[in-house]
Design brief:
AG1 protein; 149 residues; mainly alpha
């Protein structure tokens, strides 16, 4: 195919395609979802389930990844001791496994700890707000008592 023929085919293809892009979607209603406030709702039970799953994954993965690490290191040592080059490669894999496992465990601990902190902070905020509202009600009652109601 000659260069001119290639350029002609590209030009023809460009003529057949529309330069505009069209996306199939709903009309924009403003905001981040179906309502002005958005449609993402998360309750305490949802957050508790996520925190529990992260905690369980942390505990289970700690146990099972430890077994895999020990077995891999033992196999690597045995292979290296017998003069197999595969032993060094398996040792490298075991080292990377340990590093990646620590990263996953750190992430699980971070999620679990953050959700526990968030729950405690929300409980403290709720308690503070209840106290503030109660104080306002007591103050209002005092004003009503002074008026003779």
């Amino acid at each position: 195919m000659a260069w001119q023929e290639w350029e002609q085919l590209k030009a023809q293809a460009a003529d057949r395609q529309s330069p505009q892009m069209r996306l199939n979607q709903l009309a924009d209603q403003g905001g981040g979802g179906g309502s002005p406030q958005g449609d993402l709702v998360v309750g305490h039970k949802d957050l508790e389930a996520v925190g529990t799953a992260a905690h369980d994954l942390f505990n289970d993965f700690t146990t099972y990844s430890g077994h895999a690490r020990v077995a891999s290191e033992a196999a690597a040592g045995g292979l290296k001791g017998e003069g197999f080059a595969l032993g060094a490669a398996l040792e490298h894999v075991a080292e990377r496994w340990t590093e990646q496992s620590k990263s996953l465990l750190d992430a699980c601990a971070h999620i679990s700890n953050h959700l526990r902190y968030t729950k405690n902070q929300h409980d403290a905020d709720d308690s503070y707000i209840a106290g503030a509202v109660s104080s306002i009600a007591t103050l209002d009652k005092g004003f009503d008592d002074r008026k003779g109601h």
